[in-house]
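Subject: Sanity check before I submit

Could someone independently write out the structure tokens for this chain? I want to compare against mine line by line before I put it in a report. The sequence has 173 residues.
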Amino acid sequence: MIKKWKFDDYLNLIDYDFSKYKYIVFVWNSWSGKSSYIKELVKKNSSLGKNIVIIDEIFDLIDFLKLFKLFSSREQFIVASHISIKYFYLFRFLWNIKYIKTDNHHNKICNYLQCKKLRYTKNTVKNYIKIFSATYTDIDIIIEKYNWNNFDEAFNNFIKFNKVKLTWNKKNK
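---
Independent answer below. Compare away.
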């Protein structure tokens, strides 16, 4: 049985003071937690402005260029982006921007494994992140296939018996 996962503030942003930022940009791949973090921030963070514009998923430069139309607005923006942070560097000359990568945190995976009551070692978590990035989805797949209480053994068997080829999305450096 898969236990329902509650939100984990592994980046410690729920109480972070965002009041000085015009743009808050969450960057990384799909399933990295960008949208979940945005949802929780809007619900729980009191430092966000009253007029927040949420742009959930910028996938390419065409989507990015649409933001330029919004330059003169007074609203605060929270953006979930699949494109590189470097494209947002143009904005930093005009406004304060907070850049947040959501998918490269060791604690994110350790907290998830602890919630699932799985034994693990830090080395296995490091290897998992190297191959899959810090996503919950792949953990659930591994545990479903090798339903053990020990993530190290499940992960090692998954790698041994399943062909996994690492290909990196060069857009998200």
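---
OP: Matches mine. For the report I'm noting this point. The chain has a mean pLDDT of 82.
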